[in-house]
Amino acid sequence: GDVAAELAQSWQDRMREVADAPNGVAALGTVLRYLLEASETPPERVRNLVRQLGPRAEEAFMTGAQILRAEGKAEGEAKGKAEGEAKGKADTLLKLLELKFGALPDSTTRNVRGATLEQLDSWIERILQATSLEDVFAS
After folding, report:
1. What does the DSSP 8-state code read for residue 7?
2. SS3 string of 65-126?
3. Domain co-membership, 48 together with 86
4. Of 10, 20, 21, 139, which sits most exposed with the smallest number of CB within 10 A?
5. Which residue range is the domain that position 49 belongs to?
6. Are 108 and 47 within one domain?
C-alpha cells in the first residue's frame, strides 16, 4: 500500500492537533498537498482521511486543492503562451522564407514547426542577410 497514506491514517489524532494549533490549517494543508502531489495516494483516499479529521482539515484540504488548481492553471497558461509565441514566430519565419526564397521544401517547414524559441529567434535574425535557405539554418 501507500506508506504516506498509512502513516497519515495512523497519525489522525496528531493531525487533528496540528489543525487546531495556530497556523495549523496551513501546516496541515502542506501535509495534504504532499499526499496529493508527491505520494501515490489516490485523491479519494486523501479526501476520506480529511473527512475523518474534521472541519479544520477540510478547510486545509480545500485550501490545498485551491492552490493546486491555481498552480495548474498558471502552468497551463504559461505553456499555452509559450506555444502560441513559438507558433507565431514559426508562422512569421515561414512566411518570410517563402517570400524571399519561394516555395519551401516540406523538411524546412517541419524543422521550423519543431524548433525551439531560441532557434526561431536565431533564424529570424539571419534571414535578412541570408542568400539561401542553407544560410538561414547554418549552425
Report:
1. H
2. HHHHHHHHHHHHHHHHHHHHHHHHHHHHHHHHHHHHHCCCCHHHHHHHHCCCHHHHHHHHHH
3. no
4. 139
5. 3-74
6. no
Nearest Cα residue to 56 out of 22, 88, 85, 81: 22
Instruction: Please write the tens of the pLDDT for every residue from 31-64.
Output: 777 777 777 777 777 777 777 777 777 776 666 5
Q: Are residues 15 and 53 in the same domain?
A: yes
Counting residues of the chain whose pLDDT is more than 90, the rounded percentage is: 37
Within 8 A by CB and 6+ apart from 53, the residues are 12, 15, 16, 19, 28
Asked whether the predicted pLDDT for residue 76 surpasses 70, the reply is yes
Q: Which of 68, 70, 21 has the alpha carbon at shortest distance from 46? A: 68
For residue 92, CA distances in Å to 42, 87, 110, 128, 131 come to: 45, 9, 14, 13, 18
Name every residue whose Cβ is closer than 8 Å to that of residue 19 and which is 6 or more positions away in sequence: 25, 28, 53, 54, 56, 57, 59, 60
Whose cell is 498552480? That residue is 71
